[in-house]
Amino acid sequence: MLTRSAAAAFVGFALLASLGCSGETSAPPAAGGSSAGTGGDAAASGGSGGASGSGGASGSGGSGGAVTGGCTSTGDVPSSLPPGQLLPWTPSEPEPATDCSGAAVGVPGLGDECACEDLACDAGESCLRVIQPPPPVIGGSSFPRNVCLVPCASDDDCTAPSICVGELHGLTVCKTGGCRNDADCSADACGKCVGGYVSGHAGAVYTDPSAKRCVYPGGCGQSSCQGCTLDEPGWHQCGG
Questions:
Q1: Environment class of 238 (CB within 10 Å of its CB; exposed 0-12, middle 13-18, buried 19+)
Q2: Is this model's pTM higher than 0.70 or not?
Q3: N or C: which end of the chain has fewer CB within 10 A?
């Protein structure tokens, strides 16, 4: 039994024998050789196309995106400026407090914190009387109140991790968890220094550098910083 390849070879041999060796039959093989050469050119050009494809290797630069991706968040960077009208606030010179100011005692952010009804500051803090702008919701006029602060001239006057920052009442004070710029936010990767404003009455907004805070992209997990707490969507803060 002949295989398919053997049968093809036998038919080809018989065909050649029937054609003989005339000059008329020599031309077709030459033409076939020419077309084969053309085929070789096509193969060569195809190869050059492959070489240009190596440009795709530059796509590996996309791995840089992974590094950038490590510093992105699912949420926008928390807004520094709350809605409202930014107003100038020129505080009076704070002075030591020795008695009640007349503000609402015990009301967070409104009442006296010291020098009144046995209230006292912690060790290292100073009890100062400041002028507070009209608060949200309640409104009214500005008013005096006693507050506990740690005045400073530089970071050297503060106990780490506190830093020396400006604040609403015209002082520079030691603040834990505060920041002046992104470089101060290193408790976790890709920190951002945001905020720096407080809200007043009737949509008023005042600049308060001590209200700045560090936020970091992502939520809280096993690899997060110590004291991790959620901030705005897609961001977290770090504790001390």
A1: buried
A2: no
A3: N
